[in-house]
What does this fold into?
Amino acid sequence: MPSENWILRGGRGAAIAKKYDLDPYLARILAVRCKEESVEEYLNREGQLFDPLLMEDMVRAVDLIDDHLSMDKELTIVGDYDVDGLTSTTILLKGLSHLYPGASIHYRIPERISDGYGFSIDIARELEAKGVQMVLTCDNGIREFETGRYLKEQGIPLIITDHHDIMTGPDGVQAIPDAEAVINPHRTDDHSPQKTICGAFTALQLIRALWRRKRMDEKGDLVMSELTGLAAIGTICDIMPLMKENRKLVYQGLRALNYNPPTGIRCLMKEKNIRTLSPYTVGYVIGPMINAGGRLGSQNKYIRILLSDDVFECQTLAKELAALNAERQKMQEDGIAKGLDRINKDTSGDMVKVIYLPDVHESIAGLVAGKIKDEIHHPVFVATKSEKGIKGSGRSIEAYPMSQEMDKVKEVFTRYGGHQMAAGFSIDGPKGTEEDMARTMSRALNENCTLEEKDCVPSIYIDAVADPALMTLDRIRQLDILEPMGTGNPRPLIACKKVHLHKVSVYGQRKNVARLSLMTPGGDVDVISFRVPYISDFIGKCLGRDAQDRMYDGLVVDPAVTVDLVYEAGINEYHGLEKPQFILRAIRHS
It folds into this structure.
C-alpha cells in the first residue's frame, strides 16, 4: 500500500451556515462541494434535468426517428453488454415502444466473447442481412468508422448516441463516424452543461426530446419515471460523478425506483434482501449481478430482467444472475491474486503496468485491473488470451487520462475505446506471440507516458475536522442533505488529530473487522475498519511485530499511542436501535 497524502480541502462555510441554518461542519462540507455549482443548485435535487435540445444533433435525430417510425419502418437498437449499455437499450426500447405503439423495434447486444466491445462491422453485416432499415446505437458507436462507412454504402441510416471520449486527430479536430446524427456530450459543438454523463442518460435525453415532439408531459408519467430510474442505475454503475445533472438524475431516479420498482429490479432486490435502492446497493449489489450476465452468459438473454413484466421469468433470471455473480467473485479473487503476484515480481519500474494473465477470463479483466490499481495506485491494464491474440481492460488514476494516452499509440491496438478512467482493447496477432504483444503494448504506453512517482501517490481529501465523540445522531443525520452520495460526491471524510489509541481488537467470523478504541477530547469512542491488513500493517510499523500478532486476540496499547485519523460518520441500526458508527479510512502516527 503506497503512502498517502492527506489534503484538507479549502472552503469557508460561515455564510452558508448562517443562510441555511446549518451546523458549521456541514456548512464547510457544502462550501467544499459547491465549487462548480452554487449551493442553491447543489441542494435543488428536485430540479428539471437539462434541456435535451442543448445536445448537438438532437433535433436532427428526433426528426429522423419520428419520420422513420411514423412511416412504420423497422429500427434496430445496438447496445452494449454492461449495465450502462443494457439500461440504455431498455430506455430506448421501452421509450420508443411507448411513443410509437406497434412499431417494429428490435435490439442487438454484442456478445462479450464472440463479438467483443462495440458495434463491429460483423454485426453491421448481420443486421444488413436481416433487412434492418435504421440503426440506433447507445453506449457505443463513437469510434466505429468502418461500420459507419459500411452502413452508408448499404443505404441504412445510422444514428449514434454515445458518451465515450471522441478521438482527436493531430490537428486537434474531432474524428466523428459517418452517421446521420451523432449525439455525444463530448462533441466540441455540444452545449450540454455536464459532459460526464453516461450512455443511459444520453439515451434518456433522446427519449425526452421525442416526448416533447409528441407533446407529452414528463411529470408524473409512470413510463418516464421508470426510464429515469434506469438512467440512474446506468449512471451509478458506469461510475459517473454524482454532481450537477447526474446528482439530480440519480436522486429522482432512485426515488422513482424505490416507490415503484420494475418487476426485474424488484426480483433482484428480493434475491439479495435489499429493502431500499441507494448508490451503494445499486453500485455494489444490483449492478454486479446484472453485469454478471454479460461476463459469464449472454446479455441478449439477461436483458430480459429489465424488459420483462413476468414475475416468474424475472425470479428465474434473478436467481441465475446471483449464481453467475458468485462464480464471478471467485474468479475475480483468483485473478487479483495472480495479478498482484506478477506485480510483486516486476522490477521494470514502469509507471503504466501491463499484466498478461492468459488464464484470467476476459470478462473480469477490468475488475481485476481495477482492484490492482486500487492496491498500487498506478494505471493498470490486464490482458488475457483471445481467439485472435490478446484482449483486455484498463483502469486508471486521476493523473492518467487512459483513452487519450491510448490515442498516442493507437497503431498498437486493433480495437480500443473508453474514457479517462477505464478502457478496453484488443490486439490481433499470430498464436504463440501473446506475451510479445503485451510487451509491445507496455513499451509503447510507457515510452509515451509522462507520469512521475508523485502522481502515483494516492491522496485523501478531507472535508472537515471534527471529534467523533461529539458526532451525535442529529449531526450525522444532517449529512442526508448531501444525498445521493457516491463517485464525485462521496460521503464526507472527517479528520481528527492527536487522539489516543489505547486498544485494538479484531472480530467477525472471518476476523475481517478491526475495532480501535480511542480517547479524544470529547470522550471515549470506537472506530471500526474493514481493512484488517491495513490496520495490522500500521500496528506493526508503530508498535512492532509482537503487538501486530497480539492484535488478533485484543491488544491493549499501554502507554496509549497518539494518532491522527480520517473517518466516515454513519448510523448503525440494530434491532430498531440506532447509534453513531465511525468507519476508519486512514490512520497515521501523530
